[in-house]
Design goal:
homodimer, 142 residues, alpha+beta, Pnp Oxidase, Chain A, eight-stranded antiparallel beta sheet, 4 helices, globular
């Protein structure tokens, strides 16, 4: 039987291990675009880095609405979909801090500083997503 | 070093195992929406089922443009993003056939017939995506 999660349970599931988010944005022509990103948790917000000049960065500058999808790709399957609003920061200290936290989550703690230096630089954006709707379902195919 | 795949190599990577696609669509309000789906391969096309009354089904009826994202969530990381155009069929025999193929891919061959019966019914749509752009990158963090 499929199990529905509450929003807090959904975020706990998302951050229980370093899953990648699939970030949905809308291009200038109105077409959807989905790309994988690394994320970290800041309380109830989801944080990620992207370049100001990338497709993702430009889309967020036009429209702050995003969709973030996480899933288990094997039976019994599970997913969490977060709809939210993005706020962009270019504050150097926060950018470097979060770039390190995010890099460390996916590549190991010993890599955190290197990722902070690499991704905590001008031209990179720090994006905080405040969820407006969270849907989580476990054991879909059970 | 990251390796860029050609479009045919990208599709081979996608279908080498039963990965879920993260389907990006645009809602009526213009916001992005991403959800996981099961897919199968029909030559150069990607096939999936969805309900006519679901958010996905309604979005495709409004705008046939889709984005499909597949990724490896662990080092060295990899992804394929397929931008494409969806064509919808409700032809009963094809619907039942593909619902079985798709269910069998993810749940095992012994489940194919059950999924064909369950998802190959009126109200379900068969969606064929013809890729217009395919981007594939392996060994991103190497």
């Amino acid at each position: 039987m499929a199990t529905t999660l509450t929003p807090p349970e959904s975020l706990d599931w998302v951050f229980a291990r370093p899953r990648t988010a699939k970030l949905g944005t809308v291009t200038a022509s109105g077409a959807p675009h989905v790309a994988p990103i690394w994320v970290a948790r800041d309380g109830d917000r989801i944080v990620f880095n992207t370049g100001a000049d990338t497709a993702k960065g430009k889309a967020l500058a036009r429209d702050p609405r995003v969709s973030l999808c996480f899933d288990d790709e094997a039976p019994p399957f599970a997913f969490v979909i977060v709809s939210g609003t993005a706020e962009i920061s270019e504050e150097p200290e926060a950018l470097r801090h979060w770039a390190g936290v995010i890099g460390g989550r996916y590549m190991g703690e010993d890599q955190a500083e290197a990722y902070g230096e690499r991704n905590g630089v001008p031209g990179e954006l720090l994006v905080f997503v405040t969820p407006t709707k969270v849907v989580g379902v476990l054991d879909i195919a059970d």
